[in-house]
């Protein structure tokens, strides 16, 4: 990685009208993260020394999302939308600070990779003043065209300002740009708005830098990576591209995805070597899975830490705060939340285990439910090691079940159970010999009907 200091300026003032949403565009999610989060994660990975985020007026929600990942990000407000150069200049005080390289990115272009940022930025170290990321979209309409002469980039012409001949150029501006920190402010300040849109175009930095005699470089990248999101359809397209990338990376890392196209990963999903993921599994954010664990079909995991050689599902739901230790088993139709299931414990069928701790090797029978909520507060259930809870038991929290304790089937446990004790909490069975036969005889005589089943 470069040892040159790097200021990243992220333009996040997109209004997102075509999203038909109450939410600002850059907060919409792909693979479990907002688009803004993706861009910031990528710039952090690319070695950002300082981060400036330009937001629209009143967008405290966008500012907060930025600070979540980069707590010392400087937030700037662009009051009026007067163009991309005007937006970058909203971060003037960050630019005045003095830095080797400046990278400008759009928060609605979430698929950009750190390697590409490094490639874009590299010419600055060789003395270039401006570097532009180019791509060749299937349909160039709407994009700024890169006008080149051999290797030299002469200018970027916006669609609305382009001549018929310039419009035939297929090499387009992706929007990302790198500026030498020494020249950035002087270039930006000289950009005017005498163009078809009456906007301050960041792209004009190219011609100004050339007129100053500086080198200006265009670097080409894949169309996929610079796809901008302006609609729900493009959001779904970005999701599909990212999912494909994440699945490939998981498989390259030694994970078996039986039907990759049916498995949905989050950007931060961590899967260990020889994990097997069966079809139709969804990973929300914050999941890690240890080696050789099997996630059976139709399971949903979010905010869960799953250790090695665990079996999850089919049809299991692990909610945030779930921790499942080595060799434990979470079976079908089991939901866990804020629950620590220790080594070798089993919760195999039809259970809800919330705000709980289950000790090592303990077996929770089918239909064990922790009653953790009374409409006001949440309460904890503590279960020791080597315990056995009979099927269809309700554990009414707060309650503690000791090590090695045994709970008879069908219990409603409201009191603590000591180590190695048996707790029965159900009514005793009564048997009346011959009662059913006498009942039928009596009712048949009284009604004149024979028994109906
Ligand atoms: C811009 C580029 C164009 C490039 C295209 C790639 C300019 C002048 N043109 O065009 O060459 O091909 O991106 O997608 O730079 N923004 C602000 N404040 C503003 C204006 C824009 O924050 O006043 C932000 C937007 O939220 C958006 C980004 O800058 O994230 C691009 O703005 P947009 O108006 O979409 O530029 P394009 O016309 O698409
Ligand atoms: Ca755009």
The dominant shape is: elongated
Share of helical residues:
10-25%
Binned strand content? 25-35%
Poorly predicted runs are none
Report the radius of gyration as a whole number of Å: 31 Å
- Determine the structural class based on helices, strands and strand pairing: alpha/beta
| CATH topology (level 3) name of the largest domain | Spore Coat Polysaccharide Biosynthesis Protein SpsA, Chain A
The tally of helices reads 10
Largest sheet, if any? 19 strands, parallel
pLDDT averaged residue by residue: 96
Tally of individual domains: 2
Beta-strand segment tally = 33
Alpha-carbon distance between the two ends? 80 Å
Mind telling me which CATH architecture of the largest domain this is? Alpha-Beta Complex
Question: Which CATH class of the largest domain is shown?
Answer: Alpha Beta
* Ligand inventory: uridine-diphosphate-N-acetylglucosamine, calcium ion
Q: Give the full name of the CATH homologous superfamily of the largest domain.
A: Spore Coat Polysaccharide Biosynthesis Protein SpsA, Chain A
């Amino acid at each position: 990685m470069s040892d040159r200091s790097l200021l990243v300026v992220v333009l996040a003032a997109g209004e997102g009208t075509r999203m038909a949403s109450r939410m600002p565009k850059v907060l919409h999610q792909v693979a479990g993260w907002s688009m803004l989060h993706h861009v910031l994660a990528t710039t952090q990975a690319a070695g950002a020394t300082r981060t400036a985020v330009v937001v629209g007026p009143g967008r405290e929600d966008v500012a907060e999302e930025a600070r979540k990942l980069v707590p010392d990000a400087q937030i700037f407000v662009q009051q009026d939308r007067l163009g991309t150069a005007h937006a970058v200049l909203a971060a003037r005080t960050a630019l005045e600070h003095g830095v080797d390289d400046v990278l400008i990115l759009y928060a609605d272009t979430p698929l950009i990779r750190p390697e590409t940022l490094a490639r874009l930025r590299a010419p600055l170290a060789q003395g270039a003043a401006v570097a532009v990321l180019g791509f060749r979209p299937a349909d160039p309409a709407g994009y700024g065209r890169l006008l080149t002469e051999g290797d030299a980039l002469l200018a970027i012409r916006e669609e609305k300002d382009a001549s018929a001949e310039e419009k035939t150029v297929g090499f387009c501006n992706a929007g990302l740009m790198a500026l030498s920190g020494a020249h950035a402010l002087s270039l930006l300040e000289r950009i005017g708005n005498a163009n078809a849109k009456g906007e301050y175009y960041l792209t004009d930095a190219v011609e100004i830098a050339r007129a100053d005699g500086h080198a200006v470089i265009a670097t080409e990248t894949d169309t996929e990576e610079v796809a901008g999101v302006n609609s729900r359809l493009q959001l779904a397209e970005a999701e599909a591209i990212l999912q494909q990338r994440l699945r490939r990376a998981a498989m390259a890392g030694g994970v078996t995805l039986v039907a990759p196209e049916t498995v949905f990963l989050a950007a931060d999903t961590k899967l260990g070597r020889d994990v097997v993921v069966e079809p139709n599994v969804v990973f929300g954010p914050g999941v890690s899975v240890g080696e050789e664990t099997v996630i059976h079909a139709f399971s949903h995991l979010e905010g869960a830490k799953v250790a090695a050689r665990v079996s999850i599902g089919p049809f299991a739901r692990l909610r945030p705060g779930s921790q499942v230790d080595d060799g434990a088993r979470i079976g079908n139709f089991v939901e866990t939340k804020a629950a620590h299931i220790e080594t070798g414990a089993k919760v195999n069928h039809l259970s809800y285990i919330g705000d709980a701790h289950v000790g090592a090797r303990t077996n929770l029978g089918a239909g064990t439910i922790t009653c953790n909520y009374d409409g006001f507060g949440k309460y904890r259930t503590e279960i020791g090691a080597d315990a056995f809870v009979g099927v269809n038991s309700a554990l009414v929290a707060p309650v503690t079940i000791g090590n090695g304790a045994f709970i008879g089937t069908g219990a409603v446990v409201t009191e603590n159970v000591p180590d190695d004790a048996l707790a029965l909490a159900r009514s005793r069975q009564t048997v009346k010999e011959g009662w059913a036969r006498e009942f039928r005889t009596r009712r048949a005589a009284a009604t004149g009907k024979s028994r109906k089943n």
